[in-house]
Amino acid sequence: MARPKEFDPDTAAQEAMEAFWERGYAATSVNDLLAEMGLNRGSLYGTFGDKKQLFLAALDRYEAQRADELRNMLDRPGSAKAALVDFIHMAADCCTSLEGRRGCLAGKAAMELAPHDKDIADWLKKFHRRNIDLVARTIARGQQQREINDNLDARAAARFLLNALGGLRLLGTMSPSESEVQDVVELTLKVLD
Description:
Elements: H1 9-23, H2 30-37, H3 41-48, H4 51-74, H5 80-95, H6 105-112, H7 118-144, H8 154-172, H9 178-189
Helix pairs in contact: 1-2, 1-4, 4-7, 5-7, 5-8, 5-9, 7-8, 8-9
C-alpha cells in the first residue's frame, strides 16, 4: 500500500517557483530544491518527476498567479483604457521595487531555456498567447468604448504592449530610477491614442 504524502504539493511547487525565480534554472540544483522544499529525493521525483518537470510545474503556478492578476485588472467593469493604463503602471511600479530586481520568471525561462528546450518554448508560446488574448480583448473593448484608437490592430497592439512590459521587467533587474521607467511608460501608452 502506498504511503500518504506528508507534504502539500502546492506549497512545494510554490517554494520551487520562488527558488527558480531567484536563481534561474541552471543555477538551482536539485539539492537546493530539496532544501527549499523540505523534501527528500523520493518525494520530489515521485510527485513532480525530474527537475525539468518540477520547473514546468513552477511555471504553471507562476502563470496561474499572473493570469489571475491580469484578468482581475483587465476584465474589471468600466474604462478599458484605464484598466490598461493601471496594468502598465502596476508593472512599472514593480520595476522600481525589490521584486523588480528578480525580473520575470517567464522572461528568465525564455532567455535561459527556450532556445534549446522545446517543452519550455512551447510553454512560453502558450503563456504569451494567453496574455495577448487578454490584452487584445481589453484593447478591442476600449475601441468599442471610443477611448482607444480604432485604427489599431488589437492583437498587434497587445503584442507591442506585452513586449514593452517584458522590456520593463528586464529593466527592473538593473534598478532603474522612477523617471527612467516613467519615460518608457509614457511612450508605451501613446500607442493607444
